[in-house]
Write a structure and sequence with these properties.
Elements (H helix, E strand, L loop, with lengths): L1 E2 L1 E4 L3 H12 L4 E4 L6 H4 L30 H14 L4 E2 L4 E6 L4 E5 L3 E4 L2 E3 L20 E2 L12 E5 L3 H12 L3 E5 L14 H10 L2 E4 L3 E5 L3 E6 L3 E6 L2 E4 L7 H7 L23 E3 L14 H4 L2 H13 L2
Parallel strand pairs: 1-7, 2-3, 2-8, 3-4, 8-17, 9-16, 10-11, 10-16, 11-12
Antiparallel strand pairs: 5-6, 6-7, 13-14, 14-15
The chain binds flavin-adenine dinucleotide (FAD).
Length: 321
Amino acid sequence: MIYDIIVIGAGPSGLSVAVEAVKENLSLLIIEKGGIVNSLQNYPTSMTFFSTPELLEIGGLPFTSSTMRPNRIDGIQYYRKVAEYYKLNFAFHKKFLKTQNNGNEISVLTEDENFKSRSVVIATGFFDNPNLLNVKGEELKKVSHYYDEPFRFYKNNVAIIGAKNSAAISALELYRAGANVTLIHRGSALSENIKYWIMPDIKNRIEEGVISTYFNTNVLEITESKILLKNNEKGEFEIENDFVFAMTGYRPSVEIFEKSGIKYDAETLAPIHTSSFETNISGVYVAGSIISGKNNNKIFIENGRLHGKIIVDDVKIKYLS
Ligand SMILES: Cc1cc2nc3c(=O)[nH]c(=O)nc-3n(C[C@H](O)[C@H](O)[C@H](O)COP(=O)(O)OP(=O)(O)OC[C@H]3O[C@@H](n4cnc5c(N)ncnc54)[C@H](O)[C@@H]3O)c2cc1C
């Protein structure tokens, strides 16, 4: 079978493309390496969205929540309901590798099965590829780029590397669960983009001294029981450490771009695309947060959900008429 459109990635942006395709009666397959909204499943257990529910809606279906900011489970259930309502067609637990353009059709290669389509939308986000510290010891089991919950770290020395929202939230949760928290950042201060309701809490805890900080400080090495740091004031020095959360952000997989022949900006890692999100490969589009490359704060659910209609309109005119 040749599909009209194959969407890669069942995140909020991929789902919004899929919904628009179904509304236009296109034959559709969504290929997802995990389960539905896989990234959300791996977010911190007790996270709440910073957006209000209506800004997370897709397909015109209302997202009701008892609180102003819905939580992770509200989000997962909402997007699953959208998928059910629109009867979206999925191939789950299938890892996409690359596309091959064969003129009238595009081959979509996964680890164990190949598919054919007239158009493909890559909406794989960035959450699988953390920005690495590139220091010795980063590979140790005690180091993670994904924070989940704080309870197993009671009385442990936990270092948070970074100074944005995720770093601030995890530092606060860990402190409140009884961990000894140290926040380490190569810059001179907390990010100004930390949400306005989180900023006073983290600033006050730092001022109180219950969360320690090292600003203008670089991590040189991580060992089983210590971290080696360096700053101008103290030179090289060590701190006791049991666990590390490196909240240093994420970047899209350029491997997908390179294997599929998709051009991207070498500096930002953002795929080159037209105003209707088509890449340099005819019929291959990008949607959602993958578009912003390393600048993760540019496209999120609120605006990524709007790509679907533009893409589907373009696909219909160019490849299905
Ligand atoms: C803690 C936290 C809170 C947030 N709160 C908000 C908020 O309040 N409001 C907001 O607008 N945004 C928020 N965001 C950002 C938002 O979640 C992301 O921008 C959004 O998920 C991006 O959607 P996406 O569909 O582009 O990518 P993703 O949601 O990352 O989806 C990509 C999908 O592609 C799949 N995939 C990846 N590689 C492959 C492959 N090779 N083969 C097959 N499938 C693959 C993944 O498994 C995943 O399901 C938050 C992010 C975090 C971390």
